[in-house]
Amino acid sequence: MLLMMAEVLQLSRVSAAYPNSLFWKVLAFNQTHTEWFGCSLHDTIQPGFSFLVGVALPYSIASRMAKGTSFAELFRHTLWRSFALAALGVFLRSMNHSITYFTFEDTLSQIGFGYPFLFLLGYFSFKVQSLKWVWVTLAIILVGYWLLWAVYPAAPGNFDWPSVGVSAEWNAQHNYAGFAAHWNKNYNFGNRFDQWFLNLFPREHPFVYNEGGYLTLSFIPTLGTMILGLIAGSWLRGSRPNIPMEKLLIAGLAGIVLGLALHYSGICPVVKRIWTPSWTIFSGGVCFLFLAAFSWVIDVKGYKEWAFPLVVIGMNSIAAYCIAHFFEEFFVSSFRIHLGPNFFRFAGAGLQPFFTGAAVLLCYWLMLLWMYRRKLFLKI
Q: What is the pTM of this model?
């Protein structure tokens, strides 16, 4: 969540002002999404958020069942949470539009769509005290989703790529040939589904393609990411008070290796924007390693104090998400009005976006700190 909020640092603008600086170039790369294949630090935000939803679920189910909450009550709450997340996603994405902007590719909507299925799987695995069917379900989801894309026809050789927002230059640089062409931008199974599904809703203009290539159906492999988190959470809860470090490390390394193997073998490319099954596996591996690293530093070694700023954000992740969407322009304009347009130019015009963003980010965090100290937590 901190990485998402830190978008206000505008590292790409700073890098453009210092084109010969490798330092700013690396930082800027890791604050942007890769064009198609690959992974930057920024690409791990949504998988991390989705993964942690799964990690938390075994604890949530166990806690509520210990209080005597029935399955019906749990499932009603799950459906409400699912609806609220999806609706909040649509609401936030509708800002600056003339009517409600019905798209469902954002993080909240994707989690909301998959959450009821995740809950049912988590509840069942909790009752039987086994992850066997969790693994089986994960495999069915990923293989089945891969198959849907694999059998959908790839674009013909004379296809007019600019008609779906893909320039000839972009097509030559990023789109695939051969079997992997089934996962090319804006001519694929997911895009065809959206051309039907999203046009069922009232729109400013008929939907043809998403400029970034993002898709509604990505919630299916995103569910796979949440299931990997469910597995990790079950391991953590089942190993208390110890940390299953070996399992986390093996799962992390195996996920990265398998994901890359699927990509380089041509079976399924690693593409975050359309959340390919290989991306689910690869990014899941990264999430396992992040979880192992944080668990080792905080729980095993006991170094906890440094993480307080992250705790303030993590305890109010929904509030942090909304604050980042609502308040950026308010703070930027307030600084400009009260401090003057050149206040943050003390280190030069090239660094002005960075220091302006740092001040905005600090304001975000202070708002969350105020809420944290008053135990005001926005929950769904």
A: 0.94
